[in-house]
């Protein structure tokens, strides 16, 4: 477990120590992040394609991922909406035009396509070629290092994180309800509880959860984790604008770890500048905890 924590936390914190105002460098890091993400997804798909009895396992992956996604996100919404009702804080005003959801959906589709491409190639050349062991882990280290640099240089001050009470409470509710949803999904699917908790701990960070769970339990469970977490991003694109006016914690919370990256433009457009500190605080928490929880829960033998 400690080795796994070092693998994911060391590059994150080393990256966070790097402060730069070089916009060209930061833009390059953003591009590198996307390339690394596509490589990771291709590797995961490739490993999936080389599984024995793949055709029999695909329905299991689909049903399991859907079960986790529906239960976890439903638990999230129940808990977060209850908090918004108990402690309401409606928006003072609604801002302008939303970013194109269809473009964001297209981007999510490209991620799925990369997994499918890897699976197809892996299936076609099965037995003729195999990737180096832990190849995805090496790529993940580079990706997490880049994420650390992003966190430091996106204007995220620890003061904004530590002193935003609503963001902290939203994060706690989100984490508890996610884990409860993962437990129930594991029970329904007859999986070990620690496996359900691990899959629930990605919080939408699919590039991290898919690799760590793939390394722990194989590409089938890595794929379940990936599609479970990717679904959060897709659902968020539509729920954030719908919830934002009267349920700001629910709108931000449903996005999970993506609150600091791909869904942040949606959050900012839907809620304006007044909701950004909440998104920053919540997003920081849901980006820091997944590496710890994923490594912890996936270290238990099943």
UniProtKB/TrEMBL annotation:
Q: Where are the transmembrane segments?
A: 24-48, 60-83, 104-125, 137-155, 167-189, 275-297
**Protein name in UniProt:** Lysine exporter LysO family protein
- The domain of life is Bacteria
Protein source organism: Pasteurella multocida (strain Pm70)
Q: Which GO terms describe its molecular function?
A: L-lysine efflux transmembrane transporter activity
Q: Which UniProt keywords apply?
A: Membrane, Transmembrane, Transmembrane helix
Q: Does the keyword Transmembrane helix apply?
A: yes
Write down the InterPro entries for this protein, in alphabetical order.
LysO
Coiled-coil ranges from the UniProt annotation: none
Any one GO cellular component localisation term in the record: plasma membrane
């Amino acid at each position: 477990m400690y080795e796994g924590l070092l693998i994911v936390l060391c590059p994150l914190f080393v990256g966070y120590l790097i402060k730069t105002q070089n916009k060209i460098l930061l833009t390059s890091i953003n591009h590198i992040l996307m390339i690394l993400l596509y490589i990771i997804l291709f590797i995961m798909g490739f490993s999936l394609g080389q599984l024995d009895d793949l055709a029999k396992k695909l329905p299991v992956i689909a049903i399991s991922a859907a079960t986790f996604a529906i239960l976890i996100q439903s638990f999230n919404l129940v808990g977060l909406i209850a908090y918004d009702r108990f402690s309401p804080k409606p928006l003072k005003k609604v801002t302008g035009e939303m970013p194109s959801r269809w473009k964001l959906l297209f981007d999510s589709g490209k991620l799925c396509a990369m997994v499918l491409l890897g699976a197809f190639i892996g299936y076609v050349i099965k037995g003729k070629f195999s990737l180096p062991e832990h190849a995805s882990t090496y790529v993940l280290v580079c990706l997490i290092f880049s994420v650390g640099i992003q966190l430091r240089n996106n204007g995220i001050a620890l003061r904004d994180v530590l002193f935003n009470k609503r963001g902290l409470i939203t994060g706690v509710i989100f984490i508890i309800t996610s884990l409860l949803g993962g437990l129930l999904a594991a029970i329904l699917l007859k999986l070990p509880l620690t496996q359900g908790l691990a899959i629930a701990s990605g919080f939408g960070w699919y590039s991290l959860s898919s690799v760590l769970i793939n390394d722990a339990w194989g590409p089938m469970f890595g794929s379940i984790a990936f599609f479970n977490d990717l679904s959060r991003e897709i659902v968020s694109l539509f729920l954030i604008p719908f919830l934002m006016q009267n349920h700001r914690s629910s709108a931000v919370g449903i996005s999970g770890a993506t609150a600091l990256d791909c869904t942040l433009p949606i959050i900012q457009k839907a809620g304006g500048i007044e909701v950004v500190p909440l998104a920053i605080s919540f997003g920081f928490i849901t980006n820091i905890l997944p590496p710890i929880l994923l490594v912890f829960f996936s270290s238990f033998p099943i």
